[in-house]
Write a structure and sequence with these properties.
Layout: H1 24-28, H2 44-50, E1 59-60, H3 62-71, H4 76-94, E2 106-107, H5 131-141, E3 148-149, H6 151-161, H7 171-184, E4 191-192, H8 193-201, H9 203-217
Antiparallel strand pairs: 1-2, 3-4
């Protein structure tokens, strides 16, 4: 069996968090208004982020993001920087008007407002899952195996989906897919279709947390 494919060194740049200049967001992230979310009827995109809502109140604070990233296997430095960066970028977009400043908490109900371009199209404008677009990921880019992606195939997909008129959206898919490849690919370097599917409904995060918890208990 072939050895595990290693991501090129350049891939590490996809996993570097952008540290915000105003880390005071972390301090204020616990202040928010009451959220309204129907957990029984969430969209796929809401399920995608719901894992990070650790107390299930419909609001994701920077500290909950940090806890979630650590839970799936990220180191503390990466988790803290990424949590602060995402809170600073997504919080203001998803916060209702009456939420307290600096609008750093992420409201699950409005997560569709934070959707970015240059993606796969597997979410529609309201955050619902689009099965046909998900299948296209594999019919177009899975060449070594029909049910899995190599790092190079993921890179090819990311480049193919880039919107040339929206360069600001290019970095998000690189970071998202780069991280999930690092955490969820197998020993041969394949990201399997079921793991990729789990990105879209958030189930892969629960599996990663369970695996990490199980591994620690076996030590």
């Amino acid at each position: 069996m072939a050895g595990r494919q290693r991501a090129p060194a350049a891939a590490s740049s996809y996993l570097q968090p952008v540290m915000p200049a105003v880390l005071f967001l972390w301090v204020f992230s616990c202040r928010h208004v009451e959220a309204s979310i129907d957990f029984a009827n969430m969209t796929a995109l809401q399920k995608h982020v719901e894992f990070f809502d650790r107390n299930k109140d419909g609001i994701i604070t920077a500290s909950e993001l940090f806890e979630g990233y650590v839970a799936i296997g990220c180191d503390a430095v990466f988790a803290r920087g990424t949590a602060a960066s995402i809170s600073a970028g997504v919080g203001p977009i998803t916060s209702p008007d009456d939420a307290p400043l600096p609008h750093s908490s992420i409201y699950v109900e409005y997560i569709h407002k934070a959707m970015h371009g240059s993606d796969t199209g597997a979410y529609d404008a309201k955050g619902r899952f689009v099965p046909a677009k998900f299948e296209e990921i594999f019919t177009k880019h899975a060449k070594v195996r029909p049910d899995a992606l190599t790092f190079e195939e993921i890179e090819e997909m990311i480049l193919a989906n880039r919107d040339p008129l929206d360069p600001q959206s290019w970095s998000a898919p690189e970071g998202e897919w780069g991280l999930i490849y690092k955490l969820a690919s197998d020993k041969q370097g394949f990201l399997h279709k079921d793991s990729a599917r789990g990105i879209y409904d958030g189930s892969v995060f629960y599996k990663l947390e369970e695996q990490r918890t199980s591994a620690r208990s076996d030590m």
